[in-house]
Amino acid sequence: QVQLVESGGGLVQTGGSLRLSCVASGRTVTSRTLGWFRQTPGQERDFVAAIGWTGSSTAYAPSMKGRFTISRDAAKNTVYLQMNSLKPEDTAAYYCAATAGFYSARVSTQVNDYNYWGQGTQVTVSS
C-alpha cells in the first residue's frame, strides 16, 4: 500500500508563489511515478505535473509549463510542486498521486494510471 499526505496549500495573491509537498510512504513508493492533479467543484480532476521514479523525467500540462516545477527527494520520499506566477484560475484542490505500475519508462499524464491518492490541499489565488 501507498499513503500520500499533501501540505503547503493556502491563500496567495495573483503573481505569488506556493510550494506543495507530498510525503509518500510504502515499501514500493520509490519505484512509482508521482504526480499532481487539481480539481475544482463540479469539474474533472486535471493533470498538472508528474515525475518518473528516477526523478529524471517530468511532464507538465501546457498551461503550467514554465510556471510550475515538480521535483522529488528520494531520501525523504517527498514530491514537491513549486508554483510561481499564480493566477486566479489556478485556484483548486491539488492532489498528489502515485501510479499503479512500477519502474515505468513513461511519465503518465492520465488520471486512470494513478491508483493512490492523497486527501488534497486547497490552493486559492486571489485577484
Q: Terminal Cα separation, in Å? A: 40 Å
Task: Count up the helices.
Answer: 0
Uncertain stretches: none
> Which overall shape is indicated by the principal axes computed on the Cα atoms?
globular
Multimeric state = single chain
Mean pLDDT level = 95
Strand portion, in percent? over 45%
> Would you tell me the structural class of the helices and strands?
mainly beta
Portion of residues in helices? Answer: under 10%
Rg estimate, integer Å: 13 Å
How would a textbook summarize the main sheet?
7 strands, mixed
Order of secondary-structure elements: EEEEEEEEEEE
Task: Give a count of the beta strands, DSSP E runs of length 2 or more.
Answer: 11
Task: Fill in the keyword field for this structure.
127 residues, mainly beta, seven-stranded mixed β-sheet, four-stranded antiparallel β-sheet, 0% helix
Description:
There is one protein chain. With 127 residues, the chain is mainly β. It is 0% helix and 49% strand. It has strands at 3-7, 10-13, 18-25, 34-39, 46-51, 58-60, 68-73, 78-83, 92-99, 114-117, 121-126. The strands form two sheets. Strands 2, 4, 5, 6, 9, 10 and 11 form a seven-stranded mixed beta sheet that branches. Strands 1-3-8-7 form a four-stranded antiparallel beta sheet, with no helix packed on it. It is globular and about 40 Å long. The mean pLDDT is 95.
